[in-house]
Design a protein that fits this description.
The protein has four helices and no strands. Helix 2 packs parallel to helix 4.
């Protein structure tokens, strides 16, 4: 987990990538948004849904959803290793 300072620094980096002139007036020419959540604050089903949503936005060169690196996936799921998480894993593999 990130500290508050690490979190803020990471979001600042994201802004720099998405909007190189973060000090401009008005909205960005290309709309964008970002959000963050303390994953461990989510109940297990919501944590599983978040991991699934992340994986569904990561695509392989062959056009298939790419699962997260297992250690990162385990870290994100944390305590969400209940039946819902196991069922969700089966659904993703069967997809």
């Amino acid at each position: 987990m990130a500290t508050d300072a690490e979190h803020d620094e990471l979001l600042d980096r994201v802004v720099t990538v998405l909007c190189p002139d973060a000090e401009h007036d008005g909205p960005c020419p290309v709309p964008w948004a970002t959000t963050s959540v303390a994953g461990d604050s989510l109940p297990p089903p919501e944590r599983v849904a978040l991991v699934e949503a992340i994986e569904e936005t990561n695509w392989t060169a062959h056009g298939d959803p790419e699962r997260l690196d297992p250690p990162l996936r385990t870290r994100l799921l944390g305590a969400a290793t209940d039946t819902a998480a196991a069922d969700a894993d089966d659904d993703v593999r069967a997809g």
